[in-house]
Amino acid sequence: MTGQHTWHGYSSQCHTQASFDELAFLALWHNWASDAARTTHLHVVAHTAQPVQAEALLAAAAGHSELLPLAQQLAAQCWGLLPGIHRLRFALNDNAPHNTPHHTPPAQDTPERSESWHNSNARLLLTLCVGPHADWPEFADVLRAHASGPCAVPTDIAALHERTVTVIGAGIAGAGTARALAERGWQVTVLDAGAEPAAGASGLPVGVVAPHTSHDDSGVSRLSRAGLRLMEQTMRGLLTEGVDWGCTGVRERRLPGKTRRGGVPLSWLGTDANTANDWTRKAPPPAPDDAYWHPRGAWLRPAQLVRALLDHPNIRWQGNAKVDALKCVTRETQTHHATQNAHRQNTSASKWQVLQNGKVLAESSRVVLAAGPGSAALIATATTDGGAPRINPLRGQVSWGLMADVPAGSFMPTTPVNGNGSFVHNITSPEGPAWYTGATYDRINDDARLLDGDHAENLERLKALESETANALGPLFATVGTSAPRVHGWAGVRCGVHDRLPMTGRVPNAPEGLYMNTAMGSRGLTLGLLCGELLAAQWHGEPLPVEARLAKFLDATRFKPKA
Ligand SMILES: Cc1cc2nc3c(=O)[nH]c(=O)nc-3n(C[C@H](O)[C@H](O)[C@H](O)COP(=O)(O)OP(=O)(O)OC[C@H]3O[C@@H](n4cnc5c(N)ncnc54)[C@H](O)[C@@H]3O)c2cc1C
Asked: Counting atoms of ligand 1 from 1, which one is nearest the CA of 207?
């Protein structure tokens, strides 16, 4: 059942600490990093009743010169450790200066270059369970399930032995899933109908990544924090800050008419105030009374991230590949069991063909549908009853213009603002520094053509959000529909289901091997990567990056009637 294998450069090991011991953790990390024969992935699962304090950690490591640089990296990630599960990620090359663009993988896998690629992709994943056991009985299950030793990858599942997967859709959800699987040794083929990656909603010129808050700290609020943490780690590692993304913080306004239960949980004003402030706090004056400040909020050019995610030696990307059907074929396979007496065994396993006009575009042991609004039609070609979950298309349009056209002296907020729509400015674009505002939100509409009426709607939203800026941009909006418009648009189609949470996991009523990761709604930039990481962790029996009950909220079978 278990054993240490290397699949396309991937190997993993687990280490459990029933009570997080900072120095022991740092020593383990140091030994792993110094070991030329290390596994590419080291999972550490640890419990701590109280959040780890950065200052105490640095003080404890002060007398250990070899551990101090690692302690500094850990301290930098010890923010916002509210009760619950947190996934901290450390790459082997985290000492390298940030802001270096993503490097190209080796063209030829020579042993030396392959070693350097895998070294630069080796990572330690710390799953920190924060809070007293009495309040979090599930922590005991997490610690029990991941005992120290080689990770218990179930090698008797043929797909996990073969590790070939086709991901349909190269948006943030598909690219995030592809990357999470490629890092675990899967050979991933990513197909997309578009000529370039990010041809759908993830082609959005710029978007906002920010946590969701609610009085009852709902599932989406908790998931959004886990998603934002992963996004920040990923953007910092793969993109150039200031060009492709900016960790500027985001100011949010709770405007009248928004349906969501705003505010923050009561505990954030008392016992958890310090750690909660790292995520969200009341914005200080002169911000309006309804304003909150998310210090970790960011803006992102998502297509840049999609491209960087796909840039991995285990990923093959193919554009102009519109899939129209999926077919499950069963075949004989050989499964390798790495027990003491290694042996091979013949079993039958599912194999999936991905088709276009009857032609096989790709064949693999698993398929992940991340085709946004196109997912439901593909699912219907593969389910036993021809049915598919109801996934609604949600059209949206942003308005944008060049900073050069903004009248001198116009009021511009110092950071991105969101609430009912958002406003972001001074963003690099092919045409020059630009501002963006929007977006509109049209239910059950899959029309991505630009509409002048949506520009007017975006201006109205901006008036409520930031009236002085709206007044300054008003004359530019007046040029819409003329022969020389100075406001332009970008429209796309998001998609979602009625509880507004993603659908991640096995496709209901389909043969084994078909999975989905879609329905990101208006939060794909915050949740897309997290869902991909979750799916990959589930396939491998790894510690999950979120609490199991949160993972259940995302389960793609959640609407299936119980038998
Ligand atoms: C106007 C607008 C503003 C938004 N603002 C924000 C924001 O500020 N913050 C935020 O978090 N989110 C925002 N979103 C939502 C976010 O963009 C989406 O949630 C996210 O991009 C969805 O990613 P995805 O990978 O699931 O889907 P997509 O990016 O749509 O990717 C699906 C891919 O599948 C491909 N495809 C479809 N059918 C097929 C097929 N049959 N064969 C092959 N390929 C296929 C498509 O070409 C596409 O590339 C916004 C969305 C819009 C439209």
From this structure: 8
Q: How far is the CA of 444 from the centre of ligand 1 (A)?
A: 15
Query: In this structure, which amino acid lies at residue 537?
Result: A
**How far is it, in rounded angstroms, from Cα 238 to Cα 312?**
11
Q: Which of helix, strand or coil describes residue 486?
A: coil
**Which of 167, 189, 202 for mutating ligand 1's site (highest number of atoms within 8 Å of CB)?**
202
How high is the pLDDT of residue 5? 58
Q: Is 298 in the pocket of ligand 1 (CB under 6 A)?
A: no
CA 128 to ligand 1 center in whole angstroms: 31
Select from 167, 209, 525, 530 the residue to mutate for testing ligand 1; criterion: most ligand atoms less than 8 Å from CB: 525
Indicate the pTM of the whole model.
0.93
Is the CB of 171 inside a 6 Å radius of any atom of ligand 1? yes
300 CA from centroid of ligand 1 (Å): 14
The C-alpha atoms of residue 325 and residue 353 are separated, in whole angstroms, by 8
pLDDT at 176: 98
Task: Check residue 470 and give its pLDDT.
Answer: 98
> In the chain, which segments carry CATH 3.50.50.60?
156-205+302-337+344-390+501-563
* pLDDT attached to residue 92: 84
What is the whole-number distance in angstroms between the Cα of residue 76 and the centre of ligand 1?
31
pLDDT score recorded for residue 335: 52
> 156-205+302-337+344-390+501-563: what CATH class?
alpha beta
Nearest to 227 by CA among 561, 563, 550: 550
- Atom 5 (ligand 1): residue with closest C-alpha? 207
Sheet holding 207-209, edge to edge: 207-209, 298-300, 245-246
Residue 560 has a pLDDT of 83
How far apart (Å, rounded) are the C-alpha atoms in residues 179 and 10?
Answer: 13
Task: Write out the residue limits of the CATH 3.30.9.10 domain(s) in the chain.
Answer: 392-496
The pLDDT of residue 105 is 39
Helix H or strand E encompassing 234: helix 219-238
- The string of pLDDT tens digits covering residues 52-105 is 999 999 999 999 999 999 999 999 999 999 999 999 999 986 544 333 334 343
- 557 DSSP 8-state letter: T
Q: Residue 275 C-alpha to ligand 1 middle, in angstroms?
A: 32
CATH of domain 392-496: 3.30.9.10
**What values do phi and psi take at 67, rounded to 5?**
-95, -20
Closest C-alpha among 163, 282, 222, 296 to residue 530: 222
Answer yes or no: is the C-beta of 440 below 6 A from any ligand 1 atom: no
Question: What is residue 9's predicted lDDT score, i.e. its pLDDT?
Answer: 80
Which position has the token pair 């310090």?
274
**Ranges of the chain with pLDDT below 70:** 1-5, 93-120, 155, 257-262, 331-348, 563
Does residue 454 line the site of ligand 1, with CB under 6 A? no
Q: Report the separation in Å between the CA atom of 288 and the middle of ligand 1, taken as the mean of its atom positions.
A: 32
- Which residue CA neighbors atom 36 of ligand 1 most closely? 371
